[in-house]
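Worked problem 6 (solution included).
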Amino acid sequence: MSGYAVIIEGDADSYSGYAPDLPGCVATGSTADEVAELMREAIALHIDSLRAHGDPVPEPSAAAATVVQVA
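Solution. The predicted structure is:
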């Protein structure tokens, strides 16, 4: 099973993350690592909630890549 892609944005001391395949599944924190851990927890809770309400759980389909352009 592949995992859900998570996008983490921010700088300095304010970061946020979201999972494109799970609308509404978000987290914020002081570091990118903190947001990554919070997103792991948020994804598990989000999926539990979908199941509890009888809603379908989307399969992971989004992909993310880091692309660096050097001038």
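Discussion: The mean pLDDT is 94.
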